[in-house]
Amino acid sequence: MTLGWIALICAAIPAALFLRNLRIFVAPPSTTNTASEISILFPARDEEANIAAAVAAALTNAEAEVLVLDDGSTDRTYEIVSAIAAREPRLRVLRGGPLPPGWVGKNFACAQLAAAASRPQLLFVDADVQLTPDAATRLAAALPQAGAHLISGVPRQEVGTFSEKLLVPLIHFLLLGFLPIARMRRSAHPAYGSACGQLIMVDRAAYEQSGGHGAICDSVHDGLTLPKQFRASGFRTDLVDVTELATCRMYRRDADVWRGLAKNTHEGLGAPARIVPFTLLLGLGQVLPFLLLATGSWMFFVAAGLALLPRLIASWRFRQPLLGILLHPLAIAALLAIQWFGLVRWLSGESASWKGRSIATTKAFRPAARDLAA
Q1: Among 192, 226, 250, where does a domain finish?
Q2: For residue 4, pLDDT beyond 60
Q3: Is residue 172 part of a domain?
Q4: Is residue 28 predicted with pLDDT exceeding 90?
Q5: What pLDDT shows up at residue 371?
Q6: 270 vs 171: which has the higher pLDDT
Q7: Tell me: the pLDDT tens digits for 157-194?
Q8: Residue 356 falls within a domain, yes or no?
Q9: Whole-Å CA distances, 342 to 131, 185, 265, 347
Q10: What range defines the domain where residue 294 resides?
Q11: Domain boundary among 193, 219, 250
Q12: One domain, residues 243 and 267
């Protein structure tokens, strides 16, 4: 009986918060403005499979400046973008400098892009994200509406492999089920800072005053650490629903899903201070009820239903595959296994790697982004 109540409560908490958040997690406002004040910035390393489509989509945002920084690619990324730039005056392609000690590659690439950009609003976009023609202007319009200096959202996630369908759709469940958005909007505390690293719009002045990517140079999870840095510097951040504004195919192989999710666990759910409570909350509320359905207790049936409710709604609202819902307890168990693996690896001092580059985990001197322009 006690275990049943515990499972029921642990399942009800994220379900209730998900439903509450869903009412205020809305799309950015429509606007007739052009993107003349916006720089769309792509850090790109070995992205020949994605970059042409991503750049073409970004260029549909009328009058936006588009910059691509080739971050030491070993494939044809630079050549592909250069060919497009030859016929598109709004597109510039840059060669990234050598990675300084203590920096994570993406952060250094973003810092260089920000230094080279000429517009007052910066939209950082991963090279596997495709924007709609009104994405940049609507995100820009959302900044003053929300009273924020950084705004972000989760693009519609395109998935193909089994691991993608199993794990990638958990993004919305975790975001809306565990972040109190109303409280986040009322508070400036860094603890409520959250973003999706695939798509982040910032006010340039606030970006520079907060230290930008230079202030988080050794962080792997810029989706968490950049908004926290903004908030620590006195600037507000917010989240919006960008399902209709952008699409992303993060991974294309099962192995990449596991490696990609494991590389930054020590800064997210797998952080030492978070992993035990989240393991208990997720394990007891999202996995245990399904394991004990055979007991016939109504509590476990209700808990299982509450666990699946956010996934069912997310499937409709965010266009997610049904397979992830059917295998929800397996997905949560796999997610927790990845978090523990990543934490143990980080505590042991073993560096993760991504796209052929070891990820630094040591602190380093952090220059302002504008100092990288030289």
Answers
A1: 250
A2: yes
A3: no
A4: yes
A5: 43
A6: 171
A7: 999 999 999 999 999 999 999 999 999 999 999 999 99
A8: no
A9: 31, 31, 5, 9
A10: 2-22+262-349
A11: 250
A12: no
Per DSSP, what are the bridge partners of residue 244? none
Q: For 228-254, what is the HEC assignment?
A: HHHHHCCCCEEECCCCCCEEECCCCCH
Coil/strand/helix, residue 73: coil
Angle at 174 between CA 244 and CA 193, to 5 degrees: 85
> Do residue 223 and residue 339 come from a single domain?
no
Among candidates 78, 130, 152, which has minimal Cα distance to 249?
A: 130
Burial class (CB in 10 A: 0-12, 13-18, 19+), 311: buried
* Model pTM above 0.70: yes
DSSP state of 128: T
* Number of domains composing the chain: 2
Inside any domain, residue 365? no
Least confident span in 56-65, 91-100, 337-346, 349-358: 349-358
d(CA 145, CA 374): 35
Main-chain phi, psi angles of 38, to 5 degrees: -120, 135
